[in-house]
Write a structure and sequence with these properties.
two-stranded antiparallel ribbon; mainly alpha; 15 helices; ABC_transp_permease; cell membrane; ABC transporter involved in vitamin B12 uptake, BtuC; 343 residues; BCAA_transport_permease
Length: 343
């Protein structure tokens, strides 16, 4: 039982990333009808927003520390971050330690700007073009963005730790009545799942309970009628593209302590996220979230040693096998809508 609970936790962790990226993908497809193969690059850019802020906060200058000497008796040269000069040593150290959570505030405007520029500068010209054209141009854009990140940050992963308060592991089993040290799980992975739940809930609440969201949902259902009412639905859809970019970016920001970011991490998640979207149903936001967590949990169980010993390599293909089975029995996916991508 403890192994099953641990794999469920691992699945929720993976599923959180899949669900957040797939949610953004579905927002873009549902509003604009665009198959955006550059969405994984937005996840990557969000991750490097965290890296960038971490580097900015650790910019430092050299001072001579007379109280400390080297082995020759000379005063030591010490690197002091500018943030400690501005806020004091203790406060500055705390700000540096919390660089990843603070990156959320940095990433939101950056990702919205990137999304709006991407939509207005390129994607708007492909609204009425075939989906194959959209895939090619956005895939090309993803490669360009990937190479830009590689040029500025290098090809190697960049470790970006979580705050000290969330390092280490939590004895999850004690809460469930197990003996101590039976179900140990990293704090930050639990934080990531909770963060994903908040973001997903916030997006659904925004679409469901705000006037802006209601207009967007109406536009997703019948764009022409909304335009006939005198509403500039294109402007709202552009904003939603920015929101979708922010969702993907925030998923990347909070993921960096789990997996050190590198320039190809967007591509690593992109294909899996599209499988999630297709399994959930093209254009279905609840379907994207449901499929994300479902496939994350299945992949986690398929990664167990007992399963791999029984069926070698199953952890690499389980998501695709499940996708095939679901699409054979439910061609529109779990919660797909009639008419979406069926013309």
């Amino acid at each position: 039982m403890d192994a099953i609970i641990l794999q469920i936790l691992n699945g929720l962790d993976k599923g959180s990333a899949y669900a957040l990226i797939a949610l953004g993908l579905t927002l873009i497809f549902g509003t604009l009808g665009v198959v955006n193969f550059a969405h994984g690059a937005l996840f990557m850019i969000g991750a490097f927003c965290a890296v960038t802020l971490s580097r900015i906060l650790t910019f430092s200058h050299t001072i001579i520390d007379e109280s400390r000497t080297d082995f020759l008796g000379n005063p030591l040269k010490v690197q002091v971050p500018y943030v400690q000069d501005f806020f004091g040593e203790a406060a500055g150290a705390t700000i540096i330690d919390w660089a990843v959570p603070l990156s959320i505030l940095f990433a939101i405007p950056v990702m919205i700007l990137v999304g709006v520029v991407m939509e207005r500068g390129l994607i708007k010209h492909f609204y009425k073009r075939p989906h194959a054209d959209q895939i090619l141009v956005t895939f090309g854009l993803a490669i360009v963005l990937q190479e830009i990140i590689k040029y500025f940050f290098g090809a190697n992963p960049i470790p970006t730790p979580a705050p000290d308060a969330f390092r280490g592991s939590f004895d999850f089993g004690v809460l469930l009545g197990f003996e101590a040290n039976q179900i140990i799980y990293p704090y930050w992975r639990l934080v990531y799942f909770a963060f994903a739940a908040v973001i997903i809930g916030g997006v659904f609440a925004f679409l469901q309970f705000t006037t802006f969201g209601m207009v967007v949902r109406a536009g997703m259902a019948d764009r022409e009628t909304v335009q006939l009412l005198g509403i500039n639905i294109d402007k709202r859809f552009t904003i939603m593209f920015g929101v979708a970019a922010a969702v993907a970016g925030l998923a990347g920001v909070m993921y960096v302590p789990i997996n050190p970011p590198n320039y190809h991490m967007g591509m690593d998640f992109l294909v899996l996220s599209f499988v999630v979207v297709v399994v959930g149903g093209m254009g279905s936001l609840p379907g994207a979230v449901l499929a994300g967590f479902l496939l994350g949990i299945l992949e986690s169980f398929a990664s167990m040693k007992e399963v791999i010993d029984l069926v070698p390599g199953i952890n690499q293909i389980i998501i695709y096998l499940v996708a095939i089975l679901i699409l054979l029995t439910r061609p529109r996916g779990l919660m797909g809508r009639k008419g979406v991508m069926e013309d």
